[in-house]
Each structure stands twice: as C-alpha cells, then as structure tokens.
Write a structure and sequence with these properties.
Blueprint: H1 3-9, H2 31-43, H3 49-57, E1 68-69, H4 74-86, H5 90-103, E2 106-107, H6 113-121, H7 132-148, H8 153-171, H9 181-201, H10 210-222, H11 226-239, H12 245-253, H13 264-276, H14 278-293, H15 301-304, H16 308-322, H17 326-338, H18 342-352, H19 364-374
Parallel strand pairs: 1-2
Helix pairs in contact: 1-19, 2-11, 4-6, 7-8, 8-9, 8-10, 9-10, 10-11, 10-12, 11-12, 12-13, 12-14, 13-14, 14-16, 17-18
Length: about 375
C-alpha cells in the first residue's frame, strides 16, 4: 500500500467544512423556494451601510489582509462566546459580533473570528455526543436571545445555523444509504427551518457576511442546481470577497460526491487564482486545494488535477498574510505527502513535531507513518 493510500484513508473532514458526511443524498428544495432564496442573496444588503462599507473597503482582489489576533486562542474565544450565551449576556454577544464583522479579525491561520463566533453558539457544548435535549436547550437559548434582541441579525443567523447543525446530527456521518427514513425526514425539516429563519433575517437592517455561509449550507443540503449555487456564491463573494470560507463551501458543493463532475472543484480553484490574483488569490487556491485533497473518499487523482506549485505558493501567502496555525500546517504536510514532495513534507513535519491534528489524520499512527516516509525511514 502506498504512503498516499495510507494517509488518504485517514484524512477526515476538517472543522472548517459545513458537512462532514460523505456521499450523495436526497434533495428537498422546491424550485420556487430556492429561486426566492437566490434572489434574497442577490439583493442582501443592497443600500445598507454595512454592504457599502464592505464593498468599498474590500473590493474583489484586494490585497489588504485583515487584522490578525494571532496570540488569542480560538478555543478560549469560543468558550467565552458560549459563556456569554449561557449567561444571557446579549450585549457582550452583540459587541463581539460587531467587532468581528467590522474589524474582519482573524486568528492565526486565517480563520475569521466571525466564523468561530457562530460555531461557538450554534452547537451544544457537548457537540459530538449531543442528545435531542442538548439541541433543544441550545435552540431555546438562541430563541431567548432573539426574543430579547429582535433586531439582531446575529441571533437569527445563529439560530438558523443551529437548525442546520441539528439537521446534520439527524442525518449522521455515514454514506447516504446508511441514513434512515426518519433521519432524512428530520434533516429536510430542520434545513427548511434554517432557510425560513434566514429569509426572516434578511429583512433586518443589520447585515452579516455569515448569512451567506448559512445559505450555502442550505443550498448543499437541499440540492440546489448548479446555476443557483453559482449565483449564490457570486453574490456572497461580491458582498465580502475576503471571506474565504465561501470559496471552500462552493468547492465542496462542486465535488463529485455532491453535485459536481470530476475536475470541477479543481477548475474553480484555478478560476479564483486567476480572477483574484496576488497574495489573496494564492491563499484562496491553497484553501480550496486543501479541501479537495482532504476527502474521506480521496485518492491521488485529486492531487493530479491540482497544481502543487500553486499550493506551495498559497501556503507561503498564508504565512505572510495571517501566520500558520497547527491545522493549516498539518494540511500542508498531508498534501506534501500526497504530492510525493519529500523535501516540503520533511520541513512541515519538522515544524510540527508531534503536534498532529485529528481532523487531518485518522490517527497518530497515520501521522507518524507519513512523517517517517518524509524522513526517509
């Protein structure tokens, strides 16, 4: 068995992916419903102060990096945000959301603070082993926030994201043919709740980049057609070009196991590399490539359709713009092994030491085997 086969079998979906289950699924969207949501996406924020400032400050292709909270721990930040919600400290939640949106701040590795804020409030603290009671309690806390702050876009979008996560919990992490009939039913119902909640959130004066990410989750779950999914992505990227999570989510939609054809995700990475250009274009290529290369059904054909030199360029750009996180270093090490570049892999493993990431490697043994290959042992 080749070193690539060994490591690819252990490559799990990362926490930056919306859906962690593999395989195609049923679709739930009615054509008129998805079309109305696409139209909402096209007009979201038009005429608002937020959308104008976003477009003026960060036009497509902007090379200006966001502020970087490199020294702050993501885990500590998420714990603080979750504590605000549990303690009904809505003013602190609103202030944190405003700061994350306006400042466009990121943690080391480039992840947006805004992304982690929503992640912190849209999952029960026992995420992974959560019961229906845990989810019901989480939803109740968010509805209390929404009731106390009816004009808060953050509260409504967080509630929608929670419905999506609750839907994913009903579906489970297996292939489509392992999902029960009731699992599909609950999955569809909960994503429908997310869609209606987001439609209501769109009516609010306050606008947020994460609204588009949540709608992209609906598009994937409901099986929107390609033209609609592309219109949604284009609207999202126009609203906030530097929110790289949009690009990863659309590339995920284009994977063959979802709604694309072989090579479409890779072609999208090339398109964005050329269209955006500069350091941001290189960074986006790395992010999309790391999603494509790290799939639970992946093989070396993914790397054959990606440019390893461009991945290396993107990794350098990542470090220059935002610094390196353990997660991103692990992803690069994994791709270096897949590309059979021993020099790059050896350098990455030397920096990592024993700090392996569970979302990239199936086990510590897979990580050690890959490192041993890179070191020629």
């Amino acid at each position: 068995m080749s070193i690539w086969v060994r490591v690819s079998l252990g490559c799990a979906f990362s926490t930056l992916l919306l859906v962690s289950a593999c395989g195609p699924q049923q679709t739930f969207a009615r054509q008129d419903d998805s079309e109305s949501l696409v139209e909402l996406a096209r007009t979201y924020g038009q005429g608002s102060h937020v959308s104008r400032s976003v477009r003026d400050k960060h036009a497509a292709g902007s090379q200006t990096p966001a502020a970087n909270d490199a020294e702050e721990s993501e885990a500590a930040y998420k714990s603080l945000i979750a504590a605000y919600l549990a303690g009904k400290n809505y003013e602190a939640l609103e202030q944190a959301a405003r700061e994350a949106r306006v400042g466009k701040t990121r943690f080391k590795g480039g992840i947006w603070k805004l992304y982690d804020l929503y992640d912190a409030v849209s999952n029960p603290t026992a995420a992974g082993d959560s019961t229906d009671g845990d989810w019901t309690s989480q939803i109740a806390m968010l509805k209390a926030w929404e009731s106390a702050r009816p004009e808060s876009a953050t509260a409504q979008i967080a509630l929608a994201e929670t419905y999506e996560n609750y839907g994913d919990a009903a579906r489970g992490k297996g292939y489509a043919d392992t999902v029960s009939e009731n699992g599909w039913k609950l999955y569809g119902e909960r994503y429908a709740l997310a869609a209606s909640t987001l439609a209501e959130a769109a009516k609010l004066k306050e606008k947020c980049p994460y609204w588009y990410q949540a709608i992209q989750g609906v598009a994937l779950a409901q099986g929107w057609d390609k033209s609609q999914a592309r219109k949604l992505f284009d609207a999202a990227a126009a609203f906030e070009p530097t929110y790289y999570h949009y690009y990863r989510l659309y590339a995920n939609y284009l994977l063959p196991k979802w709604y694309g054809e072989p090579g479409e995700s890779e072609a999208f990475a090339e398109e964005m590399y050329d269209k955006i250009g500069g350091q941001q274009g290189k960074f986006i290529y790395f992010e999309v490539a790391s999603l494509i290369a790290c799939q639970c059904d992946s093989d070396d054909s993914h790397m054959e359709n990606l440019s390893w030199p461009k991945i290396e360029e993107g990794y350098v750009a990542l470090g220059q713009l935002y610094g390196y996180s353990t997660l991103k270093m692990n992803r690069f090490a994994h791709m270096a092994v897949a590309a059979h570049d021993k020099t790059a892999a050896q350098q990455a493993f030397a920096t990592l030491g024993n700090d392996w990431d569970r979302t990239v490697w199936k086990s510590s043994l897979d990580f050690v085997n890959a490192r041993n290959w890179a070191e020629g042992q």
